[in-house]
From TrEMBL:
Statement: the UniProt record of this protein carries the keyword Cell membrane: yes
Gene name, Swiss-Prot/TrEMBL: LOC114438517
A GO-annotated cellular component: basolateral plasma membrane
Keywords: Cell membrane, Membrane, Symport, Transmembrane, Transmembrane helix, Transport
NCBIfam families assigned to the protein according to its UniProt record, in alphabetical order: 2A0113
Cell location: Basolateral cell membrane
Catalytic activity: 3-methyl-2-oxobutanoate(out) + H(+)(out) = 3-methyl-2-oxobutanoate(in) + H(+)(in); 4-methyl-2-oxopentanoate(out) + H(+)(out) = 4-methyl-2-oxopentanoate(in) + H(+)(in)
Protein name in the entry: Monocarboxylate transporter 2-like
Membrane-crossing residue ranges in chain numbering: 18-37, 58-80, 100-124, 145-164, 176-195, 266-288, 300-322, 424-446
Family named by the database record: Belongs to the major facilitator superfamily. Monocarboxylate porter (TC 2.A.1.13) family.
Membrane-topology annotation of the record: Multi-pass membrane protein
GO molecular function: monocarboxylic acid transmembrane transporter activity; symporter activity
Domain Major facilitator superfamily (MFS) profile: 19-448
InterPro entries: MCT, MFS, MFS_dom, MFS_trans_sf, Proton-linked_MCT
Length: 481
């Protein structure tokens, strides 16, 4: 088992026990957060005809929902830091349920934007981030595996909802289906009840930990190593200063850590993800409509999502296991770069797939690529910034990413409207994924190289400090003699 990254949490995460129940709760919560907007695409063709809107207009439903989910990240961070994950997730489940019930009475596409998109999207944000954050408090050594298992919730829920939504539509229409989905999503409240706070009444970690998380600021590590003798005094002084700060300012500093914009690894992650998310969700959103456009029947088109989700379901935990190995974990950012590039290649090759068999093959490979990327998406961020700063990092990342998440599917839908063909949309998504994948490979190579140099410097500084201490003791002994 590879050594775990230093988290500076002040306690030892249990890496098991009730943590596995928390993973199950996160499995459900994350599953609905990511799978729900995708599963609703089953209704898009019928809703498009019902309201007489274009491809790009109907795509705004998922876009607004996903963008609201990401835009709610900072609000979710503040609430999680203030109240904990459990109540936030439960409130999120109630919001999504209310949004779907209200949407079932919709009289225009704008009504769906507000109810499904805004209300439902913010509810999903209250499900997603608390589930991701609480795993970092329960797990350290087994964290990649725990994250991989939790992220498996998305394909499992999608695998279930895709055919279920088609059945509900045939039986009750889209309005009745939305009512039923409003009750199903209340399972998030049950998932939230499992997320009890971790027991922190555990002895603090030893101060002599030598491992440093990949991508974490090596400058901070060097400074810590050079000033080990003064660490207790500095911590006391910082604690006293923090008590004198205003309560409002302390809350902002705790929940929105703008110092992350000086963090090299965080900036690399953020820069690549901004471009990546323009092509991240659109291929899933348009998979079933693309199949229907080629003359494939509704159930077969919905089954493509189930195939995609089934492959995704097994790839995510497998990715977590691979990411936790001694060979991969120290350089897990390269694994993430490969997953991003693999997605881009799949989309570029999609237009070559002909007929239903070709789309099935694409769904299999796309499921592999999407599952790898999704399992690593937040694990590599935690690897870069550490578990202690992860909640605020997710908040900043999601609020910035909500722009490309919002615009990605409508831009793709506009390409379909303009050319009357889906292949240009898949070409664009392929480029949006392949370019950041190559960017990640290059930038993380230099980042790891820089980190190795800084770690060697910190070791040298520590050795010199030790030699000076030994020399000082020898001089004192000579004077006493």
């Amino acid at each position: 088992m590879p050594p775990a990254a230093t988290t500076n949490l002040g306690y030892t995460p249990p890496d098991g026990g009730w943590g596995w129940a928390v993973v199950f709760g996160a499995f459900i919560s994350i599953g609905f957060s990511y799978a729900f907007p995708k599963s609703l695409t089953i209704y898009y063709k019928e809703i498009q005809e019902y309201f007489a809107v274009s491809y790009s207009e109907i795509a705004w439903v998922s876009s607004v929902m996903l963008a609201s989910m990401y835009a709610g990240g900072p609000i979710s961070s503040i609430l999680v830091n203030r109240y904990g994950s459990r109540p936030v997730v439960m409130v999120g489940g109630l919001m999504v349920s209310a949004g779907m019930v209200l949407a079932s009475y919709g009289t225009s596409i704008i009504h769906l934007y507000l109810c499904v998109g805004v209300i439902g999207g913010f509810g999903l944000s209250f499900n997603l981030q608390p589930a991701l954050t609480i795993i970092g408090t329960y797990f350290q050594v087994k964290r990649p595996l725990a994250n991989g298992l939790a992220m498996t919730g998305s394909p499992v829920v999608l695998f279930t909802l895709a055919p279920l939504n088609q059945f509900l539509f045939d039986s009750f229409g889209w309005r009745g289906s939305f009512l039923i989905l409003g009750s199903i999503v209340l399972h998030c409240c049950v998932a939230g009840s499992l997320m009890r706070p971790v027991n922190k009444c555990v002895g603090p970690k030893p101060n002599d930990e030598s491992s440093v998380c990949n991508g974490a600021s090596a400058e901070e590590a060097a400074a810590t190593a050079a000033a080990t003798d003064a660490s207790t005094e500095s911590a006391t002084r910082l604690t006293e200063e923090s008590k004198t700060e205003g309560k409002g300012r302390g809350l902002v500093n705790k929940c929105i850590d703008f110092s992350l914009f000086k963090h090299r690894g965080f900036l690399i992650y953020l820069s690549g993800n901004v471009l990546l998310f323009f092509g991240f969700f659109a291929p899933v959103v348009f998979l079933a409509p693309y199949a229907k456009h080629q003359g494939i029947d509704e159930y077969s088109a919905a089954f493509l999502l189930s195939i995609f989700a089934l492959v995704d379901m097994f790839i995510r935990p497998a990715t977590g296991l691979i990411g936790n190995t001694k060979l991969v974990r120290p350089r897990i950012q390269y694994f993430f770069s490969f997953a991003v590039s693999y997605n881009g290649i799949c989309h570029l090759l999609c237009p070559l797939a002909s007929g239903y068999v070709g789309l099935v093959v694409y769904a299999v490979f796309f499921g592999q690529a999407f599952g790898m990327l999704s399992a690593l998406l937040f694990e590599v961020l935690m690897d870069l910034v550490g578990a202690q700063r992860f909640s605020t990092a997710v908040g900043l990342v999601t609020i910035i990413e909500c722009g490309p998440v919002l615009l990605g599917p409508p831009i793709s839908g506009a390409l379909v409207d303009a050319f009357g063909d889906y292949k240009y949309m898949y070409y664009a998504c392929g480029v949006f994924m392949l370019v950041p994948g190559i960017f990640f490979f290059i930038m993380h190579y230099f980042n790891y190289k820089k980190l190795d140099e800084e770690n060697r410097q910190s070791v040298a500084v520590e050795m010199r400090a030790s030699e000076e201490v030994v020399q000082l003791k020898i001089n004192q002994e000579d004077k006493t003699d």
